[in-house]
């Protein structure tokens, strides 16, 4: 809960807590050291994440207490560094004479202390008890019953953490609705073995309390140290709906739903910069470094500041910079209303796991029986048909829409959808890799067997059962955990040396050691199935070569042949130099354009026509004809028509000046015959590109009237094309105006 909270920690500091923790495996640590590490994690969480949480500490099982039983170390208050330091120093104290403390006496006093502190305040009340259960108690069953009623009245949540104590208890079996498992748990608790008689008595009383306080008390036997750590490193958040609205199934049916965050990416807190020039202040609101932005014109030598209101965004368009103000930018954005709409259904097998691109949200119906039944019916139907739903989701107005998958989920008490974002075509990147060598059936079988053996969810145990090695609810966020640990360490020690991460958490993050032992045989088969060859890289020799070495490594004939080759090469170079100077002197250069390209065809055509060193007129006319036809044939909706018309005009002009009028007139008849039904010919008619008359060039046999009549003799389809083209130009001019 992210609101106000009061937590009292009851820590047993008797001699039994200084004994070695039996479930630690290879890690040699005492029960008290483990308890102190757990409490340190909780204090870190409170300091970093919960400013309204108050924490207190009570020690029991110590002779230093005034009544010989309980000692108040920290009253209920907001935790600070001194509190964290005091808890860290607890294992360094001397071992007392008492084996353990009275659990129920300390619990009774803690409940009264919480009741007196909270009174009428609205805050959640919690108690954590950490003990090995070896302390003697004076409480009877009658007093235990009275304590149970007091706990129910005050409404306290109790977490009882047993260290090497009540290891036979299983919370999953403690369910009266499952009579067989519940009876088996009772028999197990009655026949369990304990280190001493006090543990047996305390176990019976604690088990009695948890049966009566099912909503207020939980037992956590620390069979695995990491499960114990998980009770302290988790960060609880207040559930708030990120979306509340209608889930539109079709035009007539909609369901009112709520969307909650199931999981999200956690980021480290931002670190503020504090100035070291001023006097050090413990107040976090002082000595802040503030950044001021000043805008100025880089061409202004005086660097005169410019107000932010006088600054506008500019977007590059070719070589020009187009200014766009905020109003215009808002208008150009995609305006999308808030929406949650069903698109359709697909088989679940059609969406692989690697398509999930974001965190998971939970979709539930609002607290209305009709709405809940409607959503439950859709969930159950999708589960029965093994399908998932696809939907369009826009959480807020003017945000980008998302393609999401609704994965149906049915639990014991409710039905819901898991909402997961899916990628679109724009999100997929195709990487070009070289083709891999095809694997053989034995290789595929070996890899498949290795994957099955290394499954973290189904690891066989000694009793033949299966165990999950990597339970996410027991895994701390290593980045956030280590960040908090480093900050706390530096705040206390003032040292720049980074502390190592907790070995228990680090070991649980690497369960592969146990997996490797189990999959050893499968790994050997994979190694035998794939034969690897070492790619030997030849070492590069010394690049420096001496004349003596050359004469020693080569014979006289080889040296003579090399000398002759070098002489031939020198003669060729001299001949090329002579030819180059001769060409320059005579005006022959290699920069003559001999081919018309498609990038700038008119420029290439002019150079070939006007070339004086070589006659390229005929070649240029032949090539320009091919280029025009190429532009027309390859045009998409007339995209290259303008270039073709420019080339045709340039060809007509050149044929007039070079006395090649018959060539152009013949070519224009070819264009008319080939493209008379296309818009391209309509554009020729519209721009008046006609035959060359005998007035323009004496080599032409076409009169002026014949040239004009060549364009006027068009059928109805030609006129329609011309009219259509004129209307398009008029519409375009109207839009520009």
Structural description of this entry:
- This protein has about 725 residues and is of the alpha+beta class.
- The protein has 4 domains: about 5-230, Rossmann fold (3-Layer(aba) Sandwich); about 240-270 and about 295-425, Beta Barrel (Ku70, Chain: A, Domain 2), CATH 2.40.290.10; about 445-530, Ku70, Chain: A, domain 4 (Orthogonal Bundle); about 600-735, Serine Threonine Protein Phosphatase 5, Tetratricopeptide repeat (Alpha Horseshoe), CATH 1.25.40.240.
- The chain contains 23 helices and 19 strands.
- The strands form 5 sheets. It has a 7-stranded antiparallel sheet with strand order 7-8-14-17-16-15-13, covered by helices on one side.
How would the blueprint of this fold be written?
Blueprint: E1 5-12, H1 31-49, E2 53-60, E3 70-77, H2 81-88, H3 103-118, E4 124-131, H4 141-154, E5 157-162, H5 179-190, H6 197-212, E6 217-221, H7 225-233, E7 243-248, E8 254-261, E9 295-296, E10 305-306, E11 313-317, E12 320-324, H8 326-332, E13 339-347, E14 360-365, H9 369-385, E15 387-394, E16 402-410, E17 415-421, H10 441-453, E18 459-460, E19 466-467, H11 478-493, H12 503-508, H13 512-518, H14 520-529, H15 547-553, H16 556-586, H17 601-609, H18 617-633, H19 641-657, H20 661-675, H21 679-687, H22 704-712, H23 716-736
Parallel strand pairs: 1-2, 1-4, 4-5, 5-6
Antiparallel strand pairs: 2-3, 7-8, 8-14, 9-10, 11-12, 13-15, 14-17, 15-16, 16-17, 18-19
């Amino acid at each position: 809960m992210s609101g106000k909270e009061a937590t009292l920690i009851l820590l047993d500091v008797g001699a039994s807590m200084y004994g070695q923790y039996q479930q630690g495996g290879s890690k040699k640590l005492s029960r008290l050291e483990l308890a102190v590490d757990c409490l340190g994690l909780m204090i870190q969480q409170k300091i970093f994440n919960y400013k309204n949480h108050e924490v207190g500490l009570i020690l029991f099982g110590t002779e230093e207490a005034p009544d010989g039983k309980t000692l108040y170390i920290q009253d209920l208050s907001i935790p600070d560094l001194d509190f964290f330091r005091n808890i860290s120093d607890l294992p360094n104290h001397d071992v007392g004479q008492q084996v353990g403390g009275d659990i129920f006496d300390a619990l009774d006093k803690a409940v009264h202390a919480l009741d007196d502190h909270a009174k009428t305040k609205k805050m959640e009340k919690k108690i954590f008890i950490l003990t090995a259960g070896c302390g003697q108690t004076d409480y009877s069953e009658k007093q235990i019953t009275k304590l149970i009623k007091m706990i129910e009245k005050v409404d306290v949540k109790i977490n009882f953490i047993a260290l090497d104590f009540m290891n036979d208890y299983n919370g999953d079996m403690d369910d009266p609705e499952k009579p067989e498992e519940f009876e088996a748990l009772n028999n197990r608790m009655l026949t369990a073995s304990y280190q001493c008689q006090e543990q047996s008595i305390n176990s019976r009383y604690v088990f009695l309390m948890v049966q009566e306080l099912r909503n207020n008390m939980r037992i956590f036997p620390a069979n695995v140290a990491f499960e114990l750590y998980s009770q302290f490193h988790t960060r609880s958040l207040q559930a708030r709906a990120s979306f509340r609205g209608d889930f539109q199934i079709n035009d007539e049916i909609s369901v009112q739903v709520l969307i909650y965050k199931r999981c999200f990416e956690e980021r480290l807190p931002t670190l503020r910069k504090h100035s070291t020039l001023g006097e050090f202040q413990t107040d976090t609101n002082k000595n802040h470094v503030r950044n001021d932005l000043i805008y100025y014109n880089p061409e202004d030598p005086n660097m005169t500041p410019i107000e932010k209101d006088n600054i506008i965004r500019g977007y590059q368009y070719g070589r020009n910079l187009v200014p766009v103000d905020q109003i215009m930018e808002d208008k150009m954005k995609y305006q999308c209303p808030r929406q949650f709409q069903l698109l359709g259904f697909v088989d679940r097998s059609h969406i692989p796991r690697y398509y999930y691109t974001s965190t998971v949200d939970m979709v539930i119906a609002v607290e209305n029986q009709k709405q809940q039944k409607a959503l439950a019916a859709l969930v159950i139907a999708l589960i029965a048909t093994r399908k998932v739903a696809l939907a369009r989701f826009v959480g807020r107005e003017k945000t980008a829409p998302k393609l999401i998958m609704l994965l149906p989920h049915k639990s014991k008490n409710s039905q819901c959808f898991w909402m997961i974002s899916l990628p679109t075509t724009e999100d997929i990147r195709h990487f070009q890799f070289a083709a891999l060598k095809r694997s053989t059936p034995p290789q595929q079988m070996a890899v498949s067997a290795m994957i099955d053996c290394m499954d973290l969810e189904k690891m066989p145990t000694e009793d033949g059962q299966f165990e999950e090695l990597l339970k996410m609810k027991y895994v701390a966020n290593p980045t956030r955990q280590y960040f908090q640990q480093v900050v706390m360490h530096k705040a206390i020690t003032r040292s720049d040396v980074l502390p190592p991460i907790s070995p228990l958490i680090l070991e649980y993050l690497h369960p592969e050691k146990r997996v490797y032992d189990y999959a050893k045989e499968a790994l050997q088969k994979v190694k035998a199935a794939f034969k690897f060859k070492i790619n030997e890289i030849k070492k590069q020799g010394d690049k420096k070569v001496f004349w003596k070495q050359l004469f020693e490594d080569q014979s006289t004939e080889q040296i003579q042949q090399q000398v002759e080759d070098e002489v031939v090469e020198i003669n060729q170079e001299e001949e090329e130099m002579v030819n180059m100077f001769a060409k320059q002197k005579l005006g022959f250069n290699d920069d003559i354009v001999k081919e018309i390209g498609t990038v700038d065809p008119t420029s290439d055509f002019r150079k070939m026509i006007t070339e004086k060193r070589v006659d390229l007129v005929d070649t240029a006319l032949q090539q320009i004809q091919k280029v025009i036809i190429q532009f027309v044939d390859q045009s998409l909706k007339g995209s290259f028509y303008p270039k073709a018309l420019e080339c045709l005009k340039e060809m007509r002009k050149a044929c007039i000046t070079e006395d090649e009028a018959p060539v152009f007139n013949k070519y224009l008849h070819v264009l008319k015959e080939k493209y008379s039904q296309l818009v391209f010919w309509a554009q020729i008619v519209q721009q008046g590109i006609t035959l060359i008359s005998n007035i323009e060039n004496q080599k032409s046999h076409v009169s002026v009237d014949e040239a004009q009549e060549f364009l006027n003799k068009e059928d109805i389809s030609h006129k329609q094309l011309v009219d259509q083209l004129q209307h398009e130009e008029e519409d375009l001019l109207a839009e520009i105006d």
